[in-house]
């Protein structure tokens, strides 16, 4: 059992307040991604933070595949999907 808030985490936007995107999981605020004054990196940062639990799972799956030599297409598809989620593709 990990000590972090279990995933999935998601990005939420609240344009009624003056801050960037928020990352939440299990109904709790995980992080707030402050926007840069002249850039859109706040959304990209929030996506990356929100993908953290799934990125950890994908990394653990990749390590298992390396350790055992048991490479599954399903695990590789999951790794590709979480990388795309983190990048906003």
Task: Write down how many β-strands occur, each being a DSSP E stretch of 2 or more residues.
Answer: 3
Helix content: 40-55%
Principal-axes shape call: elongated
Number of helical segments with 4 or more residues: 3
Number of domains: 1
Strand order in the largest sheet: 1-2-3
Structural class: alpha+beta
User: How widely separated are the two ends?
Assistant: 30 Å
Specify Rg, calculated over alpha carbons.
Answer: 15 Å
Return residue spans where pLDDT drops below 50 for at least 5 consecutive residues: none
Mean pLDDT, all residues = 78
| Helix and strand element order | EEEHHH
Oligomer: single chain
Question: How much of the sequence is in beta strands?
Answer: 5-15%
Major sheet size, sense and barrel closure? 3 strands, antiparallel
Features:
about 90 residues; alpha+beta; about 45% helix; single chain
Could you explain the architecture of this structure?
There is one protein chain. This protein has 89 residues and is of the alpha+beta class. The chain has one domain (10-87). It is 47% helix and 13% strand. It is built from three helices and three strands; from the N terminus they run E-E-E-H-H-H. It has a three-stranded antiparallel beta sheet, with helices on one face. Strand 2 and strand 3 form a beta hairpin. Helix 2 (52-68) runs antiparallel to helix 3 (73-87). The longest helix is centred in the last third of the chain and has 17 residues, at 52-68. The radius of gyration is 15 Å and the shape is elongated.
């Amino acid at each position: 059992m990990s000590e972090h808030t279990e995933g999935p985490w998601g990005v939420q936007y609240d344009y009624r307040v003056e801050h960037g995107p928020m990352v939440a999981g299990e109904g709790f605020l995980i992080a707030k991604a402050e926007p840069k004054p002249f850039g859109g990196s706040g959304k990209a940062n929030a996506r990356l933070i929100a993908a953290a639990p799934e990125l950890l799972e994908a990394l653990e799956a990749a390590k298992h595949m390396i350790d055992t030599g048991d490479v599954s297409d399903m695990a590789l598809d999951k790794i590709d999907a979480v990388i795309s989620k983190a990048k906003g593709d």
